[in-house]
């Protein structure tokens, strides 16, 4: 198991523990991965009013296409996704991670 896989497994097993997300964010920062900053921002946003989304939007605008990577095919024929945005009707993000995707036929 890689270090990334171990972090992700811990986060999955303890979904309400932001401490694990923040430790993983530090790990990603040390490797120059901007997801670390994004995870940290989403942990803060989860505790802030909805109108404070500037930094989240900035990071998504710059990195969303790269971060979607292997899940892009699951997002539907349009290839468009708002899945990292908090509170979208078809997709939910949980402090940096896609946690739910609604699919309709």
Summarize it:
The protein is 48% helix and 9% strand.
Helix content: 40-55%
Sheet of most strands: 2 strands, antiparallel
Number of strands: 2
SSE order, as H and E?
HHHHEE
Number of helices: 4
How is this structure best described in words?
The protein has helices at 3-13, 18-30, 35-45, 54-68, and strands at residues 91-94, 97-101. With 105 residues, it is mainly α. The chain has one domain (3-101). Strand 1 (91-94) and strand 2 (97-101) form a beta hairpin. It is globular. The N and C termini lie far apart (36 Å). Residues 85-92 have low confidence and may be disordered.
Topology, pairings included?
Blueprint: H1 3-13, H2 18-30, H3 35-45, H4 54-68, E1 91-94, E2 97-101
Antiparallel strand pairs: 1-2
Helix pairs in contact: 1-2, 2-3, 3-4
Features:
mainly alpha, single chain, 48% helix, 9% strand, two-stranded antiparallel ribbon
């Amino acid at each position: 198991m890689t270090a990334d896989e171990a972090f992700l497994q811990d986060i999955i097993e303890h979904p309400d523990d932001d401490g694990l997300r923040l430790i993983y964010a530090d790990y990603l920062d040390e490797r120059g991965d901007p997801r670390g900053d994004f995870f940290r921002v989403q942990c803060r946003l989860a505790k802030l009013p909805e109108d404070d989304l500037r930094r989240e939007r900035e990071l998504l605008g710059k990195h969303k296409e790269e971060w979607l990577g292997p899940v892009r095919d699951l997002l539907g024929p349009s290839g468009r996704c708002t899945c990292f945005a908090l509170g979208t009707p078809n997709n939910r993000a949980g402090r940096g991670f896609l946690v739910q995707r609604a699919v309709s036929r």
